[in-house]
Hints:
Layout (H helix, E strand, L loop, with lengths): L3 H9 L7 E4 L12 H7 L6 E4 L11 E6 L4 H15 L3 E9 L11 H15 L11 E4 L2 H11 L4 E6 L9 H9 L4 E5 L12
Parallel strand pairs: 1-2, 3-4, 3-6, 4-5, 6-7
Antiparallel strand pairs: 2-7
Helix pairs in contact: 1-2, 5-6
Amino acid sequence: VGPVEDTLVTELAHDEVLVGVLGSRALAATPDVLGHVARAVVTTSRRPLIVVPPDSTPLTGSDQRFLVPLDGRSRTSRAVSPLLAELIQPMGTIVPLHVFDTENVPMLISSSQDQAVLADEFAALHLGPAVPVTIRPRLRIGEPVHEILEAIRRDEVDAVVIGWSQHLDPGRATVIRALLADGRVPVVLQPVDAASPDDIASP
C-alpha cells in the first residue's frame, strides 16, 4: 500500500528479482515516451529494467540479437558485464558497439586489420572472459545517437542493452531518450554507478 512508484521500487529491490519490465507509450499519444510511474521507477530502481515499446516483438527463445553500446568507461563495463553474462548471453547473440567521436579517433584505425585488432582489444578490456562474444565489436566514428540507431537497423537486433546514469534531466541521457523515442525494439537499462576520478574512457 502506498504510492505506486515507491511500491514498484521496493518490490524490485527484493533479492529474488533479477530484472523488471515496464511499458513505454506511443509518441503519438504524448511527447514523453515514459509515463510518470515508469519515469520514476527507471530513475530510482537499481535493478536492470526492460522498457518495452507498444508494438515491439516479444523477446522469446534463445536466438535473440542484443546490441550493446559501450562508451569505453570502466564503470559502464563493470555494470553491464554481469547482466550480459547471467541474463543476456543465454538468450542469444551479443553485438557490441563502440562509437568514437571525431575528436577521439585512435591513430590505428585506418585499415580493416587495425580495426580488427582494436576491436579484439576492446572486447578483452570491456567484456572480458565472463562474456562470450561471438561477434567482434563494431567500431564506428561519428555521433553516438545516429550510429546506435543505425546499428539497430543494420544489424537487425531484437533489443538494446545499455548502461546509464539514471538521469533524465534536460540535456542528459540523449542516447537513452533517442532509443526510447525510436520505439523499434525493447531497451534494457542497466544502472551505472557515479563516475570515479580514475574512470577514463578507453578503447
